Amino acid sequence: MATKIIDDPDFSALEVTFDRAGDSLLVESGAMLARDSGVEMKTSMRGGVLASAKRKLLGGESLFMNTFTATHAGQRLWVAPPCEGDIIQRELAGETVFVQSGAYLASTPGLELDTKWAGVKGFFASGNLFFVKASGTGTLFAQAYGGLVKMRLDGQGMVVDTGHVVAFSDGLEYSIRKFGGFKGLFFSGEGLVAEFRGTGDLWIQSRNPSSLASFVRPYRPQRSAD
Question: Which one of 38, 63, 147, 216 has the fewest beta carbons within 10 angstroms of its own beta carbon?
């Protein structure tokens, strides 16, 4: 399976060319842009009802997922995130990557998808108590809002605004703390930050959906009182 990320970093889409008949890609519901007419699509609850419901309720993913399968070599498929931004492609070889809730886009059948408890600190950081956990051997695609920055940590610490974290590998641990103490929490505009330590990869996005919502709020039309 050959893959190409096009129109990055602002309006990224994933172009897939299948090498042979029977090759397939598991895709988040609603993410397909186009496909060759010979590519077959099957909609199902990945892993059964309980596993699908767990990812939906806890990980923020769709209850149903689509599997696209080639019927002959050279067929193509295009998928994209719901909002403008970039796409991560990560090859896993018996590894694990944790993806922020709502950031999963697609994966090859060799990867197992589950949810991981982020702890109470995860709730206070972003309102999300769970990550999507992708593990095994295969290719993972995740989506970001805005551009992507990949950071390699080799024992050093890295402090990141919680709203910009997209994904990280299992060699990293993190803790949540206030930005610059009490005054920093309420007056710096940063609030809570995540401090990562260990050895592994960290992906962050250049834009924060919560910041966009705060920016747009004053411009929303207000209903006048009767």
Answer: 216
